Amino acid sequence: MRTRDSILSAIRAGLGGSRNDPAAIAAEAAELLAAPETIRPPLVAATRVDAFCEKVEALGVTLDRIGSIGEVPASVRRYLEDQRLSAEIAVESAALFRDLDWGEIRPRLAVAPDALAAVGLARHGIAESGSLVIHSCKETRILLALLPLHHIVVLRAANIVSHLEDYAALLVGHETSPRNAVLITGPSGTTDIEGSYVRGAHGPGFVHVILVVDA
Amino acid sequence: MTATTRPGFKARSDAALANSTLKTAIDRTAERKRAAALARFAEYEAARSRGSAIKDHVIANLDHYLEMFERNATASGAKVHWAATEAEACDIVIRLCREAGAKRVTRSKSMLGEEIGLPDALGSAGIERVETDLAEHIIQLAGEHPSHIIWPAMHRTREQVAELFNADHKPPPADDEAASMVQSARHVLREKFLSAGVGISGANFLIADTGATCTVTNEGNAELTTTPPRLHIVTAGIEKLVPSTSHAMALLRLLVRAATGSELTQYTTFHCGPKRPGDADGPQEMHIVLVDNGRSEMIANEFRDMLRCIRCGACMNHCVVYRQIGGHAYGGTYPGPMGAVLTPVFDGLAPSRDLPFACTMNGRCAEVCPVEIPLPMLLRSWRGRSWRAGLESEPMRTGLVAWAGLARRPSLYRMASGIGVRALRLLGRSGWIGSLPFAAGWTRHRDLPSPTGGTFMERYKAERGKRPEDRR
Question: What's the ipTM?
Answer without folding.
Answer: 0.97
